[in-house]
Known about the structure:
Blueprint: H1 17-27, H2 36-48, H3 52-69, H4 77-107, H5 119-127, H6 137-143
Helix pairs in contact: 1-4, 3-4
Amino acid sequence: MAPAAQGTDELSPPVPKKLRFSAVSQAADEAMPSSNEEAEEETEQVETYPGWQSTRKFTIGVRSDVLAKSNSGNFSFDTATQIVEEIGERYGHWQDAECRDLKRLLSKYENAGTGRVLLKDFYGAALDGNWQFSESVEYLQELGALDQCGAPGE
């Protein structure tokens, strides 16, 4: 078993440092896609998650901050590790704005002060372009987000 210091746990195989470094540097890369395949992947990511560009901008900003504080002048594995750690530290605060926006949007579909959104309204919002509201009934049940006890007062 690989030691925890190598970024693995008992359930995952060790990942070579070179591969982890490559994944980190590619994820935070500022360069435009260098091939048609990369451009198609980027387009698919944006279609799947419209917030992708702002997320990418966030990670690039964190990378820039960490590199500015680094005295080494190069992009070492240790620097890549610092970037990932800093992204982890800042992400929750950064993403909170998206959560609040989502809550405001869901509140528009609330059913008469009940704190509930009818499933027809939830999916109607998706049809109106709110991509966030497209989870399946099964998935909502699995999350415990689907209230199936009936309307209030029943």
